[in-house]
């Protein structure tokens, strides 16, 4: 058996339960991503005090209250993983984080992946947030996204003040909704998506994000 990420041979336990598994990751690759613990209780931004970070305080001042469970730091290893998954189209590596995502599944929750615009979806051919959300549980696409310029070309303040591209075509009558996305940078995408859901009638909205960009990181956000 070869590691899903580095493709090096590895020894795995052969049992009836593991016979058909193809998502094995070697210990070396498994340790590369940096799990987030503590930090800001609303977005996972690392800090030593465990207090709400300045970014989330600004969102709260705007009347936008959203708790986002971010799993890993968007450091050098995170950037490498996400580029391979998102831009190189190596969707198979999503299986390497599937066990962690499955542990987040809650009964009675509607998982809503953050959508791509139709044009972006045609270019990429898959929605990375939807693939991640399916690793957690059944999904529903309740949101539509209008085409806007890529956030990769925008600065932090430009991202925060962009026009909301999300619409919810019908009233939302579900209970707890959890949005799912790949990377949290300024929080604009998730806060705007959550705002649109609440405008359509959603009463309880939170989010799960695979990576959290680090304010002090020199890596380029996606």
Automatic annotation (TrEMBL):
Q: What range(s) does the Phosphoribosyltransferase domain occupy?
A: 155-215
What the entry lists under InterPro entries is as follows: ComF/GntX_DNA_util-trans, PRTase-like, PRTase_dom
Q: Which family does it belong to?
A: Belongs to the ComF/GntX family.
What species does this protein belong to?
Exiguobacterium aestuarii
UniProt feature coiled coil, ranges: none
Name under which the protein is recorded:
ComF family protein
Q: Which domain of life is it from?
A: Bacteria
Q: Which Gene3D superfamilies match?
A: 3.40.50.2020
